[in-house]
Write a structure and sequence with these properties.
CATH architecture: Alpha-Beta Barrel
Radius of gyration: 18 Å
Mean pLDDT: 97
CATH superfamily: Divalent-metal-dependent TIM barrel enzymes
Helix content: 40-55%
CATH topology: TIM Barrel
Distance between the termini: 31 Å
Shape: globular
Low-confidence stretches: none
CATH class: Alpha Beta
Number of strands: 12
Structural class: alpha/beta
Order of helices and strands: EHEHEEHEHEHEHHEEHHEHEHE
Number of helices: 11
Length: about 300
């Protein structure tokens, strides 16, 4: 068997460390200009879309170009569990057109029907759950949507996420088993760890489907309280359950992640992401911490980093 191609990545960042769309009190007053300026100052090549970004590519393109940044992708809150396929396509179309115009390689899709990720009064443990047969039927619909996106040359990167119907390692496995290869997987180290999953075996099982990576760290001391005291997802965010690669308070092994990228010849974006309170976690400092850790991990694993 031929060895996999040499892994090559570009490092991007999510703007959620500056401004949280679900919690406007976290960075709602921080101008987009500061976010973009500091993202580039930290050394990132690209950034994912946030709520403060223009939706018109004629406005967004020059804005990002002025800061030397590419648009990596953007989140879409899916409703396919309840909606028909054609209705979901209509909802998705404006977002898709923006990503196409900005030459994004993937579209981040997360099923948010019934989600508790944005409900501060609901414990994350009380999220919606599907029976295996229901998840199989959902997978059939999702494949049809992903087939359409592949035809539009902006493939789906499905985001497993706390508080949603696909959260655990077993649910990721079941979704991948009941969808076709058009359904790519956004592999998120933080959400998988939060859900109690194992990074290396999950990555290896689904490496051929992984088309986007979020490098997110977890503070285990906060996670233990989320679980034992039945906190909501948003309370966990406010209390600092997430952090970036390189934070000594975190528990995720990013050298292991880089070795996995090398092992499977991953080529694509690795996006540093950690929703934190910018008054507690100064965004530029943590942005630099994250990229320095990922650069070091990639260098040690022999993963090429493109600017």
């Amino acid at each position: 068997m031929a060895a996999p191609a040499k892994a090559r990545v570009r490092l991007g960042i999510n703007p959620i460390g500056w401004s949280n769309d679900d919690l406007p009190e976290l960075g709602g007053d921080i101008p987009l200009e500061r976010c973009l300026r500091e993202a580039r100052a930290a050394g990132y090549a690209g950034i994912e879309k946030g709520g403060k970004f223009p939706d018109d590519p004629k406005l967004l393109r020059p804005l990002l170009e002025a800061h030397g940044l590419l648009l990596v992708s953007g989140w879409f809150s899916g409703g396919l569990l309840e909606l028909g396929l054609e209705e979901e396509k209509r909802r998705l179309a404006p977002h898709l057109r923006l990503l196409q115009a900005m030459a994004c390689p993937v579209l981040v899709y997360a099923e948010t029907t019934g989600t508790v990720q944005n409900r501060i009064g609901v414990p994350v443990a009380d999220r919606p759950k599907l029976k295996p047969d229901d998840l199989r039927r959902y997978g059939e619909k999702l494949t049809k949507l992903a087939d359409w996106l592949a035809g539009e040359e902006c493939p789906m990167a499905y985001h497993h996420h706390m508080g949603t119907i696909v959260e655990t390692e077993a649910e990721i496995d079941l979704l991948m088993a009941n969808t076709d290869t058009s359904v790519g997987l956004l592999f998120d180290t933080g959400h998988l760890t939060f859900a109690g999953g194992e990074i290396a075996p999950t990555f290896r099982r689904h490496a051929a489907r992984i088309n986007h990576v979020h490098a997110k760290n977890i503070r285990p001391a906060v996670l233990e309280k989320v679980r034992s005291e039945r906190w909501s997802f948003l309370r966990g965010v406010m209390e600092g359950v997430f952090t970036v690669p390189g934070d000594p308070e975190g528990c995720v092994d990013f050298e292991e992640l880089a070795r996995l990228l090398a092992e499977h010849g991953y080529r694509g974006w690795v996006v540093v992401e950690a929703e934190q309170d910018p008054n507690k976690a100064e965004p530029l400092r943590y942005a630099r911490m994250g990229i320095e850790a990922m650069r070091a991990a990639c260098a040690a694993a022999g993963v090429a980093v493109e600017d």
